[in-house]
Amino acid sequence: MYHARNLDFGLFLGWDIKNDTWVISELLRPLIMNINYTKGGELKYKTVTFFGFVGLITGVKPNAFSVSVNERFNSNGGYIGLFEWFLDINRNQAWTTLVARDCFENDDMDFNHVVKTLANTPLIAPVYYIIGGPEKQQGAVVTRDRAKAVDVWQLGTNNTWFIAETNYDHWKKPLIIDDRITPCNRCMDKLGKENMSFEGLFNVLSSKPVLNKLTVYSALIEPKSGRLETYIQFCPTPCDPF
Question: Which of 96, 108, 49 is nearest to 230 (CA)?
Fold first, then answer.
């Protein structure tokens, strides 16, 4: 089993005309860190994060599970959740990346338990949780509203040998100006199950427009062994802005 992701961030938060880059994306790249969390000298889990960030957006717990978090756009979005939380209207809702980290802090968690937890915990914002496990067919995309899961897409559904998620519900068509999933699926089909490797997945993640001006890093994960590799990414012009 493999789990791979591109982290894209910085859309509409300032465009550097001179360098053809997103300002926030450029600021984030030097802050990327790989961190190993230990307890009593024993490795517990690994994450890819940014200096000063305490949540979890990409991580792996060896021989247990891996998680990555993708933004989901929805009318009942995070601004409403933040408003309710800060005004103490409703604090019975978790921060999306903190509940993910809580899963890693819990030694009793396995793949199935993580899927259930991330599917049912009330959240401040809608989100996608992509979850991998150490065994065959242990892969899932949990599509979240703030209250509960809208959908749990399991690896192997309709005989799929991989599942891929960007920032759109997998049963809907993406915006025509932001269709990264179609070329991603084509690259995966071309790679093939028999050629699956870190190198092959990195090539998929580095193919435009899967790689774009917003891409800050690529992460490659093997949940069974806990192997985690992170690569800072740049997409030189010509390159799609998102």
Answer: 49
Instruction: Please give the average per-residue pLDDT across 214-218, as a whole number.
Output: 98
Give the three-state DSSP class for 128: strand
DSSP label at residue 85: H
The C-alpha atoms of residue 207 and residue 182 are separated, in whole angstroms, by: 12
Say which DSSP state 108 is in. Answer: T
**229 burial via Cβ count (<10 Å: 0-12, 13-18, 19+):** middle
3-state secondary structure 169-216: CCCCCCCHHHCCHHHHHHHHHHHCHHHCCHHHHHHHHCCCCCCCCCEE
Tokens describing residue 188: 């995966």
Joined together, the tokens standing for residue 44 give: 């517990």
Identify the CA nearest to 124 among candidates 99, 93, 100: 93
Structural tokens at position 51: 């200096």
Q: Tell me the pairing of strands 65-71 and 149-154.
A: unpaired
CA distance 178 to 39: 42
Tokens of 92: 């019975």
Residue 144 · residue 127 · CB < 8 Å: yes
pTM here? Answer: 0.95
Tell me the residue type at 24.
I
pLDDT band at 48 (very low <50, low <70, confident <90, very high): very high
Cα–Cα distance, 182 to 176 (Å, whole number) = 10
Residue 129, SS3? strand
DSSP type of residue 94: B
Helix (H, G, I), strand (E, B) or coil at 100: helix
